Amino acid sequence: MGGHREGIRGHRRVTPPLRLLLSANAAAQLAEPIRERMAGRPHLLVETGDADIAFVSRDVTGLSTKHRLEPRTQAFYENLLAAPSLRWVHVHSAGADRPVFVQLRERAVTVTTSSGNNAAVVAQTAVAGLLALARRFPQLAVAQRAHAWAPLIGSRMPHDLEGQQATIVGWGPIGRQLARYLQMFGMKVAVVRSSAAPAAPDIPTVAFEQLAEVLPATDWLVLACPLTDRTHGLIGPAALALLPEGSHLLNVARGEVVDEAAIVEALRSGRLAGAFLDVFAYEPLPAESPLWDLPNVIATPHSAGFSSGNAQRVAAMFLDNLTDWLSRH
Questions:
Q1: How far apart are CA 238 and CA 234, in angstroms?
Q2: Does the annotation count 78 as an active-site position?
Q3: Does this model's pTM top 0.70?
Q4: Residue in 43, 254, 260, 271 annotated catalytic
Q5: Exposed/middle/buried for 72, CB within 10 Å: 0-12, 13-18, 19+?
Q6: Splitting the chain (329 residues) into consecutive groups of 10 residues, what average pLDDT does each group show?
Q7: Is 283 noted as a catalytic residue in this protein?
Q8: Is 67 a residue of the active site?
Q9: Strand residue runs (E) in the chain
Q10: Domains of the chain with bracketed CATH
């Protein structure tokens, strides 16, 4: 009997270490907090090869976009797709609509995002764009470069923001933060979201499919929604035709939410008085795009959410999610 028990002990199954795929930079910063969250569970931090968990930090994507990948980003994505044991991926961004994450979800890999970590930053950027357009900063910048003294009087006189309506499309962390900021200026707020359930007792709310109901009263159309089948191409010629002439558009959502050619036409015709655009149908925005040179457009390179505190907030979110994941696996 003693020998038999010894044989069982001698063949005791050893649990393999949990493998976490992350960049060298992220590994250097997170090795210790990951070890603490593991609480003695065997694990390895790997930069290539098979893995159970992956963390896509901001340095992995670098200057890559959804449409054009840098070599190191491409290599990391290919590693994700080739990892047979991969079960969970956490992404630094608020959205996960890049093709690689769509493919991973189709493989039943759980993909979590950092939604909310930069919501205040994005909302502040959108407000900055709104104020710049409202106060005619693009025209003032042209005058400055021409050394021309051109006060905002006569036809250039800005309208008061108080009493104007901002229709916010999307009611996630960014949309809710935007509403608070805009209401501080005395603006009226309407919301377009996934359902018509009231966003708040005093905020008119419709579902995406009822967008047309709120457009005629909209002075500022603010896009802060995720890209889904329901929002793809949501703002096209029909929607733009319902906006009052002289309204404005702000897009901090995704470029594919709008029909870009229709936006250009509306800006040229005056249907739209101006636009702040941080996202585009193809990124980087091609050099030949008319959006670069339209005098009533502020175009920024998908930078609305960039801020020095993001990395720390994303890391904290990943670590909290890691604790939760470990408790269930």
A1: 9
A2: no
A3: yes
A4: 254
A5: middle
A6: 46 81 98 97 98 98 95 98 98 94 97 96 98 97 96 94 98 97 98 97 97 98 97 98 97 98 97 98 97 97 96 97 97
A7: yes
A8: no
A9: 18-21, 43-46, 53-56, 88-91, 110-112, 165-169, 188-193, 205-207, 220-223, 247-251, 272-277, 297-299
A10: 2-115+308-328 (3.40.50.720), 119-299 (3.40.50.720)
